Amino acid sequence: MKEIDDTEAERHKAKMARRKAVQDAEVAGKTIEQKGLLIVNTGPGKGKTTAAFGLALRMLGYGRRVGVVQFVKGAWHTGEKDAFAAFGDRMVWHTMGEGFTWETQDIKRDIAAAEAAWAKAVELINDPTIDLVVLDELNIALRYEYLDLDMVVETLKDRREGLHVVVTGRNAKPALIEAADLVTEMGSVKHHFSAGVKAQQGIEF
Amino acid sequence: MKEIDDTEAERHKAKMARRKAVQDAEVAGKTIEQKGLLIVNTGPGKGKTTAAFGLALRMLGYGRRVGVVQFVKGAWHTGEKDAFAAFGDRMVWHTMGEGFTWETQDIKRDIAAAEAAWAKAVELINDPTIDLVVLDELNIALRYEYLDLDMVVETLKDRREGLHVVVTGRNAKPALIEAADLVTEMGSVKHHFSAGVKAQQGIEF
C-alpha cells in the first residue's frame, strides 16, 4: 500500500474539509426540488445515444416508464433494444427512421418518416404514464429541416410538468439549446475507426 | 407535409449518392474485424458514467457478461444498479468507493478503498467469462495518485484479446489517453445545477 505520513494526511483532511464547504454551499444554493428537464446530447463524439439509454435504464431502475423514438436509425438489430425487453411494457420503443439519409437517398421518404416519428413523439410526450422520452437523432431531422424547428421547440417547451426529454444527435439547433436545461457536447478525442477498426458488436451497435 | 419539388428531390438524391460513396470508402478502409477496445469517457460534462452503463446494457442485450467496479461512489442507491439486477449474474457489480474524497476527508481510507477496488478490477479483467469491464471513476483515483498510473496503464494494455474496458471520470491522464482506442470528452454546454435545480432522481442518480 502507498505510504502516507500523518502531516500529509492532515493536510489532505483540511483541504477536503474546505472543498466540502464549497460543495455544501453549492448544494444549498439549489432550491428547485423537482423539474422535468429538457436534455440535449450533441457533438461529434461517441456517447450521445448511449448516455440517453443509460438515463433510460436509470429511470427503469426506479420503476418508471420510458418512451423512445428513433428518428433516423432504421430497423437495426441493436443490443440495447433486446436488453430493454427485460423491462416489458415499461419501455415503449418506436423505431421510425428509415436509415441514414445517404442510404435512402429519397428526401420525400425521409420527410415522411420524420413526420411519422414526430407524431409518435407527441403521443409519448402527452402520455402521463411516461416519465422520460428519448428522441434519438431528432437533431438530424431538424438539421435537414425535415421538421419545423419552431413547432418542435414549442412542443418540447410546453411539455407537461415533471416530464424529462432527451434529444440526441449532432449539430443541435441553437433554438433547441436555448430551450434546454442541460446540454452536453460529446467531443471526439480519439476514435478506433481512424485506426482501421470496424464497428464492434456491443460498442457501436 | 412539407412540400418538396422534383428538382429538389433529384438534387438531394445526387448529393446523398456522393455522400454514400464517401461513407462506403470509409467503411472499406477499415480492415480490423474485431478488437477489444480500451475506451475512456472523460471531461467535465454529464454522461461519462451514463454512457458507460449504456454500453453495458448493449452488451447485456447480446447475452454477454459485464463487470462494473465503482471506484469513488459510495453505497448510493442508484437506479441503474436496480435496473441491472434484471440481468442476474450476467452483471457483476462491485461498489468499492467510500464516497467522494471531500466526504471521507481521510486519505488513507481513500487509498485503501482505491487499492481494494483495483484488486476487484484485476479479477474482472482476468475473468474470461466477462466481455466488458467498466471502471467507473478510475480517473479520479489516478488523478489523486491513489493508484500507480504506470501499473494501471500496463495492466489495461495487457488485457486479454477481445476484452473491452471503459474507464470513466474527469481529467483522464495523458498516458491513459495514449493507450486508449476511443476517447470521448464530455463538455458541459449548459447545466440545470447552475439554474438552481437540485439533482433529479433518474437523471443524476
TrEMBL record, chains A, B:
Q: Which InterPro entries match?
A: CblAdoTrfase_CobA, Co_AT_N_dom, P-loop_NTPase
Annotated EC: 2.5.1.17
Judging by the UniProt lineage, the source's domain of life is: Bacteria
Pathway per its UniProt entry is: Cofactor biosynthesis; adenosylcobalamin biosynthesis; adenosylcobalamin from cob(II)yrinate a,c-diamide: step 2/7
Q: Which is one GO molecular function term here?
A: corrinoid adenosyltransferase activity
Q: Does the keyword Zinc apply?
A: no
Subcellular localization, as worded in the UniProt entry: Cytoplasm
The UniProt entry lists the main location of this chain as cytoplasm
Its UniProt entry gives the catalysed reaction(s) as: 2 cob(II)yrinate a,c diamide + reduced [electron-transfer flavoprotein] + 2 ATP = 2 adenosylcob(III)yrinate a,c-diamide + 2 triphosphate + oxidized [electron-transfer flavoprotein] + 3 H(+); 2 cob(II)alamin + reduced [electron-transfer flavoprotein] + 2 ATP = 2 adenosylcob(III)alamin + 2 triphosphate + oxidized [electron-transfer flavoprotein] + 3 H(+)
Q: Which residues form the Cob(I)alamin adenosyltransferase N-terminal domain?
A: 7-27
Which controlled-vocabulary keywords does the entry list? ATP-binding, Cobalamin biosynthesis, Cytoplasm, Nucleotide-binding, Porphyrin biosynthesis, Transferase
Q: Please provide, in alphabetical order, the Gene Ontology terms of the cellular component aspect for this entry.
A: cytoplasm
Q: Which GO terms describe its biological process?
A: cobalamin biosynthetic process; porphyrin-containing compound biosynthetic process
Q: What protein family does this chain belong to?
A: Belongs to the Cob(I)alamin adenosyltransferase family.
Which function does this protein serve? Required for both de novo synthesis of the corrin ring for the assimilation of exogenous corrinoids. Participates in the adenosylation of a variety of incomplete and complete corrinoids.
Q: Which NCBIfam families match?
A: cobA, PRK05986.1
Query: What name goes with this protein?
Result: Corrinoid adenosyltransferase
- Look up and give the organism this protein is from: Pseudaminobacter salicylatoxidans
Kindly list the organism's lineage: Bacteria, Pseudomonadati, Pseudomonadota, Alphaproteobacteria, Hyphomicrobiales
